[in-house]
């Protein structure tokens, strides 16, 4: 009986430490979903700053130029915060665009005048709808509490940007 009690007491600390440290349930673990969100969002922010820089210099409509400058400022700030958070959490935040974004940027570089303004601003509507959907998904289903919170925090700004882009795009549809 004494041996049984000693074995139980010896096993108890291992049981407690095994069961009491489940990061997955408490939002500290960076899941594959979180990593995908960080990667896609980082590339999107880079595409927004690159396209916004083009709009600020190539657009003929001063409202589109202004919108482009706003995109550069907002998405450069978001990119900086996301990269810092990702580095702290050990997640990759690439400072590049994906293939589709790179192709769009190449297309925008070839356009001028109203054709540029139209292509840029209509793309902004589509890009912001996609970004909002991505952030809503992470806010609802992401595992890591910091990344999930950041996604929620960014939604109002993205929604405001979509609203402004949509207003401008109405003049080009």
UniProtKB/TrEMBL annotation:
InterPro entries: DUF4142, Ferritin-like. Transmembrane segments: none annotated. Pfam families: DUF4142 (PF13628). PROSITE patterns: PROKAR_LIPOPROTEIN (PS51257). Residues 33-166 form the DUF4142 domain. This is DUF4142 domain-containing protein. It comes from Filimonas zeae.
